[in-house]
Specification:
The chain is mainly alpha-helical. The protein contains six helices and no strands.
Length: 159
């Protein structure tokens, strides 16, 4: 879209220049048109530069997203191991609940008061929560990149 606007403004600038050269128009309309088109070209150029910069970060955003998702999976596995160790330690007192089958390891932490007060588990849960917020922000950035691509070159419809 922006590139199209830029091309249109440049074409209009050339047309006005040719008209001025051909008909020697000197009533000020050429000067006003050149100034307005030049300002439009500069503004559009700035928007193109900003959008191109935002779009160039797409690969980094996808890598960060993947990193946070892997880190969350690792944290969930660590918490599941802690729960399994705690269950083995407690023995038959707590039976019938599995950290790896039906319930999320984060939900199971709430079932065990000793695990819930564990500093390590709380730290892992806090990191997991922060990562989830970062993942949400990165996914929002990817959505915003589709808008930026559309404004720049009618792109961004790919999934």
């Amino acid at each position: 879209m922006l590139i199209l606007f830029l091309v249109i403004c440049i074409i209009l600038l050339i047309v006005f220049y040719k008209l001025f050269q051909t008909y020697k128009i000197d009533d000020g309309t050429y000067g006003i048109a050149v100034i307005l088109l030049s300002v439009a070209i500069i503004i559009i150029g700035v928007f193109i530069f900003v959008d191109a910069y935002r779009i160039s970060n797409e690969g980094a955003i996808k890598e960060k997203l993947s990193m946070y998702e892997q880190e969350n999976a690792h944290i969930e596995n660590d918490i599941a191991e802690m729960i399994d160790q705690y269950k083995a330690y407690e023995g038959d007192v707590i039976d019938g609940v599995s950290a790896k089958n039906n319930e999320s390891s984060l939900a199971l932490v709430n079932l065990y008061p000793d695990l819930k007060t564990s500093e390590l588990v709380n730290q892992q849960i806090n990191i997991h929560t922060e990562n989830n917020q970062k993942i949400k922000d990165l996914k929002e950035s990817l959505i915003n990149l589709k808008v930026a691509k559309w404004w720049l070159y009618f792109g961004g419809n790919n999934k």
